[in-house]
Amino acid sequence: MEDSQYRRSEVPSESGTGKPPSGAGLLPPLSVLELALTEEGTSARDALAAVVSTARRAAELGFRRVWVAEHHRYRPVGSVAPSVLAAHLAASAPGVRVGSGGVLLTNHSPLAVAEQFTTLAALHPGRIDLGIGRGPGTADLDTIRLLRRGADQATGQEYRADLVELLGYLAHADTRRVLPGADTLPAPWLLSSGAAGAELAAEFGLPLAFAHHIRPHNTLEAVGRYREQFKASRWCEQPRVLVSVETLCAPTDAEVARLGRPALLVMAALLEGRGAETPLLSPEKAAAEPLDEALAHQLGQIRATQAYGTPDQVRRRLSDLASQTGADELMLSTPVYAPEDRMRSLSLIAAAGS
C-alpha cells in the first residue's frame, strides 16, 4: 500500500494533506473498521477473539489503524463497548493505532469518555484515536432510554454541548484533573454520515471520518462542505478526511457473491425494520434464503457504491473513491461470515495495493 507500510514494531504516524492522492491509481493509507461480527452458532468470545486476530493481521499488512464501533442490541454485532475493546486491542496488537469508530457521545458522560481515552493514551502513547459520533447505536427506543438514564434520543444541541464539554476536558486534561500528570492525549475525530456533522467537524477543527458505507449519497457534498468551512485548531491544522467504505475482496466474482450474501440478508432485514434480531448466517444457509427481487435490486444499487469484487476491481473502486473524495485515508469494513474470509479479503487488498 502506498505510504502505509511499516515494520511490525512500528506504529504509523498521523498525517493529512487535505488533498487528493497524488497520481492516478494510487491508494491512500488504509485502515480497518471492526463490528465484532457474531456469526450464527458462535459465541461473543469467538467474535471478540476474531477482532484481535484481525487487528494483528492488519498490523502485519501495513494498515494504519483499527477502530471498533458502538452498537447496542443487534444480534450479529458484538462491539458494544468500544473503550473496553480498544484497550484490549491496544495491548494485543502493538503494531497498529486503535480507537473508537466511534464512541456515541450522547450515550455517555463526556467526563467519563475523557477519562477512559486519556487513560488509554497514557498507557499507549501516540496510538489512541477517539472517534466521536452522535447516533444512539440502536433503533430501539427502550435501549436508548436505558443508555441515557431515561432520556429520549439526544438533540443536535445536546450533542454539540457534549462535544464542547469533552473537547474542553481533553484540552486541559491535566489542569482539570481528568488524569493527573497527563502528558499525551487521544487524537479526536468526528464521525459523520451527513453534511451537518461534517460542518460541525469543520467548525471545531477536527479530522472528519465520513461514513460512506452508511450514507454514500451524502459523501461528496458533506466532504466538500467540510473542506470549505474548516477552521484550523489545536487538533488539526488543515482538513483531514477519512472515508469508510464497505469492502469485500475475493479471487472470483462468484466467491464475492457467495461471501457477500449473508450481510446482504442482514441489510435487507434492516431496511424492513427487523434487522436487530437477524442472525449473520453462513454462506451456505444464506444461499438458501429467498430475497425479494425489488429489494435485491435496491441492495445492489447500494453495494455498487462500495468496493466489492476481485483484487483488481476493489483496487480500482477504492482508488476512484479516494480520487473523488480527496480522502487522506480509507477505512474498510468487511461484513462477511468467517473471520478467515475477512482476513483474506484484507490480505488480497494489501497485495493489490502494494
Order of SSEs, N→C?
A: EHEHEHEHHEHEHEHHHEHEH
Task: Using the coordinates above, name the CATH class.
Answer: Alpha Beta
Compute the gyration radius: what is it?
19 Å
CATH fold title: TIM Barrel
* Oligomer class: single chain
Q: In percent terms, what proportion of residues is strand?
A: 5-15%
Q: Can you summarize the main beta sheet? A: 8 strands, parallel, barrel
> Globular, elongated, flat, extended or rod-shaped: what is the shape?
globular
CATH superfamily: Luciferase-like domain
Any idea what the CATH architecture is?
Answer: Alpha-Beta Barrel
SSE arrangement:
Layout lengths: L29 E5 L9 H18 L3 E4 L13 H11 L4 E8 L5 H14 L4 E6 L7 H7 L8 H16 L15 E6 L2 H10 L3 E4 L7 H11 L11 E9 L3 H19 L11 H5 L5 H11 L3 E3 L1 H15 L3 E5 L5 H15 L1
Parallel strand pairs: 1-2, 1-9, 2-3, 3-4, 4-5, 5-6, 6-7, 7-8, 7-9
Could you explain the architecture of this structure?
The protein has 354 residues and is α/β, with parallel strands linked by helices. It has one domain (30-257, 310-353): TIM Barrel (Alpha-Beta Barrel). 43% of the residues lie in helices and 14% in strands. Strands 1-2-3-4-5-6-7-9 form an eight-stranded parallel beta barrel, surrounded by eight helices. Strand 5 (187-192), helix 6 and strand 6 form a beta-alpha-beta unit. Helix 1 packs across helix 2 (82-92), helix 1 (44-61) runs parallel beside helix 12 and helix 3 (110-123) packs parallel to helix 5 (156-171). 49% of the residues are buried.
